[in-house]
Input
Amino acid sequence: MSIDPTLLDDLEWRGLIAHSTDLDALREALTEGSVRFYVGFDPTAPSLHMGNLVQIVTARRLQDAGHTPYALVGGATGMIGDPRDSGERTLNTLDTVKDWVERVRRQIEPFLSFEGDNAATMVNNYDWTASLSTIDFLRDIGKHFPVNRMLARDVVKSRLEAGISYTEFSYVLLQSMDFLNLYRDHGVTLQFGGSDQWGNLTGGVELIRRADGGKAHAFATPLVTKSDGTKYGKTEGGALWLDPEMMSPYAFYQFWLNVEDEKVGELLRIFSFQSRAEIEEIEAQHAEKPFLRVGQRALAEQVTTLVHGAEETAQAIAAAEALFGGGDLTGLSTATLGAALREAGSTTVDGDEPLPSVVDLLVLSGLAKSKGDARRTVSEGGAYLNNARVEDPDQVPGPDDLIGGSWLVLRRGKKNFAGVEVR
RNA sequence: GGCAGGUUGCCCGAGCGGCCAAUGGGAACGGACUGUAAAUCCGUCGGUGUAUACCUUCGAAGGUUCGAAUCCUUCACCUGCCA
Output
């Protein structure tokens, strides 16, 4: 595998480097040969999310450019918990962490190549942390961490008032130790992570210098936020999960399709594997005629393909076209409509029973969280049956409403669809 | 261990015996305008076929009272000061 010398320029252009240690030194290292680098993922949930995806695509870019990935799953650090502003974490049980470690590992693997000269390696920091004695830890690692410096970190400072346990306070030592171990055992000299990880990243670089007199590098990717600075991922139902069980490919596709205009370019640069020229072309088209949503379409298609594959993406697109297409749903074939609705989310109702009212259907389909919510939605004019606004909350769909003899299309607001299959 | 303060709905935060399903802000949701965008404006935001009603909710469990998120007791957790 040959080394791509333009890698760092590309990363910078994509805005993927928010902070870094000596950039010139890193540039030199990245052009000299295949750099062994690592990026860690803590199992804090059963699935990775959009924030992790930034790291994943960045790792892939580095591997594509000839460098050698070590993907770390935090079996140990996941049991401790990285301090965050919102307060002390609740510790998860060992079984939970073990389960999540496996899930996270399986989620990462498809994004990297495990073949060739620069094949990726999966590691788990539990392997070198679990058996470590407290005495060794305090002597060999703890000695290199001045508490006054640790206290100065922003996360820690922000937590001093509300409280922070020794457990979370010590987190940086564990992550730094990971870097040191990978440096010693595998020659890993670069770590990157999200910008909230910056303190942990530099902790490792410094530990390698203090303990071994070694030279290592680190950079942080930016935190992806909405244009008003708040976090993404708080869409309906929570974070933007990569696991199709937790977020359907349709919902995933819809998220990207609905990205704000101002963010399209930034997100394309971060997540798309298209070249600079191609992305700039899309941005130009988008700037000229934003209402065509060329940027969003490209972004949604590419990211969904990356995460869920071409087939799921094609179905998500087909579903979107069917549901948002013309408005006349009756013109669609049952097969097309059924596929679209299953993609968007659907429930089944027994055709031998009398059909439930629209209000009940809204609750059954999950579009409303209670009957009151459903009634409210109807009275606000936000409920639709087969693309026609529902005026009467007690309306009961009749046989004539069944598209293709078996489907009802419920909608809440402009873009929340759910199917009801009657059989 | 002692003293003081705190624990309220998705989040932040008022309320400190009845007028409290609980002020306000944010998030979220719906409508209008659009382009399945943003901004803006309007509305909604515990549950119940809608009710001067009932049920669940103000850290947990008891108690006082005609009546408690509000008072008392115990417990748990958090913060500060003192030991």
Observations:
- The longest helix of chain A spans residues 171-186.
- Confidence is low (pLDDT under 50) at residues 233-237 of chain A.
- Chain A has three domains: 7-221, 249-324, 331-422.
- The domain at 7-221 of chain A is CATH 3.40.50.620 (Rossmann fold).
